[in-house]
Specification:
Length: about 270
């Protein structure tokens, strides 16, 4: 960035093109379980019935109720699903860049290096640390308890990391806070896995749809909220300049407390 802002932008676009190209190698899974169906004819008949057009308001209401009934039946699903509504608040990269640059009186280029350090740690975490921890916990406690325990631990790391980011008086402590924060970055992956285990197999697609809806609502609310808190924090000055991250710490702490109250079968 010190040489030219176009250099990282062009490199970033090149990496995105490579990532999009990898989509061509993803295998088709539409009929992956077709051979496992005991009665293909019955399965196809059932699917054709489900595709009939809705003719009355009553049938539409029935289908809507049928689509959300699996959420109402289990309060744990609703509680965990609601966490995805604040997902955007944790994806505070742009605010973090401005916060580092403003509070510690440094350039955006240097601030980007700090954020990139966290991104590198998250990559290392997802490739090595989390798979190893998940494998160990699944063998010891089973898949459901493993996801729940790792979700609790991840929430604790993220909340502590955000709290330290908001209070760090210098860049050295800020870097340490980013390390702590990155250690919990698998939280929503574990929550998604835990949610999947709490619903029946034929509800998984609907569940992911609801996760997407909550995530989108979180983006609509979270972006202006973080910007407003950042502006308010700058007006207050001092410790309050980290107001967005103090809020993030409080929200994730509430998620962690909620997870501690959730019980599942072994």
């Amino acid at each position: 960035m010190e040489r030219s802002p176009w250099i990282p932008m062009i490199i970033g676009v090149a990496f995105e093109i490579v990532a999009v190209g990898l989509i061509a190698f993803i295998p088709e899974t539409l009929n992956y379980n077709g051979s496992l169906s005991p009665n293909p004819r019955r399965s196809s008949t059932g699917s054709s019935k489900s595709l009939k057009p809705v003719s009355t308001f009553g049938s539409l209401r029935h289908r809507v109720h049928d689509s959300v009934s699996f959420l109402i039946c289990d309060a744990r699903v609703v509680l965990i699903l609601s966490a995805f509504g604040v997902h955007m608040l944790l994806q505070s990269r742009d605010v973090l860049l401005q916060y580092i640059s403003t509070r510690y009186q440094t350039s955006l280029a240097i601030a980007t290096v700090y954020v990139s350090v966290r991104s590198g740690l998250v990559l290392l975490l997802c490739l090595i640390v989390l798979p190893a921890a998940s494998l160990f916990c699944r063998r010891r406690y089973g898949p459901n308890w493993s996801d729940l325990l790792l979700s609790r631990a991840s929430a604790a790391f993220i909340a502590l990391g955000f709290l330290m980011i908001g209070l760090a008086p210098n860049r050295s402590l800020l870097l340490f806070a980013l390390v702590i924060n990155s250690m919990g970055w698998g939280l929503f992956s574990f929550l998604r896995s835990l949610l999947t285990s709490l619903v029946e197999a034929h509800h998984v697609a609907r569940l992911n749809t609801f996760i997407g809806i909550f995530d989108t609502i979180g983006h609509m609310i979270g972006s202006p909220l973080l910007a407003m808190l950042f502006r308010k924090g700058l007006d207050l000055g001092g410790v309050w300049s980290g107001l967005p991250f103090l809020l993030d710490a409080g929200i994730v702490a509430m998620i962690g407390i909620t997870l501690c109250g959730i019980k599942i079968h072994s």
